[in-house]
Specification:
Layout (H helix, E strand, L loop, with lengths): L2 H14 L13 E5 L10 H4 E2 L12 H12 L2 E10 L2 E10 L3 H13 L10 H5 L10 E6 L4 E4 L2 H11 L6
Antiparallel strand pairs: 1-2, 1-5, 3-4, 4-6, 5-6
């Protein structure tokens, strides 16, 4: 099979078979901050949220925009309320992803939490569960495993804003 045929075969598989979120998708976790005031210079997701620099080139390669596009194209962004326990503390987590991915997304998230939250860069999720975020992270409201198209937050209102912004129903 030629490289072209193999590529077409993989592309066709990606488009026709539902994929599942796996633990591997949690290697690149992007913290998400909320802007204190909606930006007049940006639109869509960037109008309400900002993505702090985390130090690795993988976060600069356009993966976030591709993830937003996949979620919009799916057309069925949902919010699922679940509970995770880390270091003896249980927290309510609101998972924002497509309906097709919600079960595998949460299962992978729970494995990631059980695996001590290992990721390429600092993300502060463990500290948020323990309610021990440093003051300078007051604007940190969500996390995004963009290779798996999954956002999560500890706040229902933030989950609703994420879902609305992803689907183009951004608040004014």
């Amino acid at each position: 099979m030629s490289h072209l045929e193999r590529g077409r075969s993989m592309l066709a598989t990606d488009l026709t078979e539902p994929r599942a979120v796996t633990l591997r998708d949690f290697w690149l976790v992007q913290p998400v901050e909320i802007r204190t005031e909606p930006s007049e210079r940006h639109e869509g997701f960037d109008r309400i949220f900002r993505l702090p620099y985390v130090g690795s080139s993988e976060f600069e390669a356009g993966g976030q925009n591709k993830s937003l596009r996949r979620l919009r194209d799916a057309g069925d962004v949902t919010i699922v309320e679940r509970h995770v326990t880390h270091d003896g503390t249980t927290a309510t987590v609101f998972v924002v992803t497509s309906a097709a991915l919600q079960e595998s997304a949460f299962a992978a998230m729970q494995s990631w939490v059980d695996d001590q939250l290992y990721a390429k860069e600092l993300h502060w999720f463990g500290q948020a569960i323990a309610d021990e975020l440093p003051e300078w992270h007051d604007d940190l409201v969500a996390w995004w495993a963009f290779t798996g198209d999954i956002f999560w937050t500890l706040d229902r209102s933030t989950a609703e804003t994420l879902a609305n912004t992803i689907t183009g129903q951004e608040p004014r």
